[in-house]
Specification:
It is a single chain. Helix content is 30%, strand content 19%. The protein is α/β, with parallel strands linked by helices. It has two domains: 16-154, 2-Layer Sandwich (Chitobiase, domain 2), CATH 3.30.379; 160-503, Alpha-Beta Barrel (TIM Barrel), CATH 3.20.20. The strands form three sheets. The protein has an eight-stranded parallel barrel with strand order 8-9-12-13-14-15-16-17, surrounded by six helices. The chain has a seven-stranded mixed sheet with strand order 1-7-5-6-4-2-3, with helices on one face. It has a two-stranded antiparallel sheet with strand order 10-11. Helix 1 packs parallel to helix 2 (116-129), helix 3 runs parallel beside helix 5 (231-243) and helix 7 runs parallel beside helix 8 (327-343). It is elongated. The N and C termini lie far apart (55 Å). Bound molecules: ligand TNX. Residues 283, 320-321, 351, 368, 393, 395, 406, 442, 444 line the site of ligand TNX. It comes from Dokdonia pacifica. Belongs to the glycosyl hydrolase 20 family. It is an enzyme of class 3 (hydrolase). Its EC number is 3.2.1.52. Keywords: Glycosidase, Hydrolase.
Length: 504
Amino acid sequence: VCLSCTPEKAQVLVPLSERSLIPYPNEIVTHEEGFLIDATTVIYAGTNLESQAVAQGFSNRFRVPSGFILATKNESKLATNSIHFVIDASASEISNDEGYILKTSKDRIIIRARTMVGLHMGVQTLYQLLPDEIENKTLTPDMIWAVPGVTIEDAPSYAYRGAMLDVARHFFSVEDVKRYIDLIASYKINKLHLHLTDDQGWRIEIKSWPKLTEIGSTSAVGGDQGGFYTQAQYRDIVAYAKLHQITIIPEIDMPGHTNAALASYPELNCDGKARDLYTGMKVGFSTLCVDSEITYTFLDDVIRELASLTDGDYIHLGGDESHVTPKEDYNLFLTKAQAIVKKYGKNVMGWEDIQSAGISDETIVQHWTNNDIATKGAKQGASVVLSPAPKTYLDMKYTKDTKIGLTWAGLTPIDSAYIWNPRTLLKDVPSSQIIGIESPLWTETVKDMDAIEYLVFPRLIGHAELGWSREDNLGWDSYLERLKMHINRLDIKEVDYYKSPLLE
Ligand code: TNX
């Protein structure tokens, strides 16, 4: 017996066609021999703390269904039966910071990236190369953890790949938001915009203005239960998102959409009288008092506290549908509000409407309904995030029979949500200024996590592909085929997605 010999490792040949990759990677070369992860596979995480953290994340998640506690070494030896997590800041073959190269062979898996973010993105692809059972939350014995033979070179088309959750019309718990983060992260989404305030509720603790939550958080649409995040809870969300390489973008909508604040503090109203809490679904009836000094004290306090909770560069000022604020007042107000955001070291994001106030080239305008207005924003040098309502508004019904959702921008079945081109939507905006897309979920009709999942999935998965994949890799037929295969993972994760007839 050869004591120093290891037994021949079992070989399993699994073709890539048995796996579904969404978003589709830029370049894939397949070869016959893939890799089999078994109980003796060793992880090499190198000496970089960030690659070690990504390796640890993989190992922890892999352990849940496999039961394997893979040995992890903080070195990089090209041994057989190994998985390598490599960060190499100078890797010139990788085209951007979120890109990665993933290679499998019978001896090893190597994921290389320039940054921790890129490595994380590569790991999301690795999960999709493993059997669906990788998603199981319980031990799954006798699985063959085989990965097809591939060399994948990948990087995103757009830097901003976002989702938005409206926690103001209905409130969602920290647990719900974390589940949402888990779900979207696997599609390489990297921004979560939280719509924290609106007429129907104020959802973030502001220590210097405590009645915002004592009073303003108690309402929600339809008289449903309100709620808010304490600053500690909010920090917890931000940290959790960061672990998934997602940046939280907080929105305080102003000067309209402010009834909850106006109900909390009489002095924010021009007539000095507090408004009643609001539980309806109308928009465009409220405004902060633009002429009074106290309004700007309020703004300064709110933005200062919010900036201190924000690890990203952007604070979203809303600015949409201020129908009862005279235009001049609106522009004056947003000029002052933008200056306060800058003062606290952040940049401004806002709905396309804010461009009328004058914006800078550091601003992001979020297109939602009017191509001309968004284009005017871009002409001032701003970057543009695309959220065209008929394509990306996740609260639009799938069909006229959908039980929840709205219809003002039309019906959005899953093919329609996918079939559009971010590169040509705004004809007069140079492509360099389009930084990405975002899918907003407004929650007037959405009361719980099941309802969120029903409207979001599977449409958001298609948006994630539009934001990530190269133009020549996009196509409804290919996407639909991959989505059909992918649905099993949603079932395993108990996602309450919409069972579109197109998936049959
Ligand atoms: C428009 S989109 C709004 C929201 C509503 C949404 C419902 C935007 C900037 N404003 O206040 O919730 O439609 O679809």
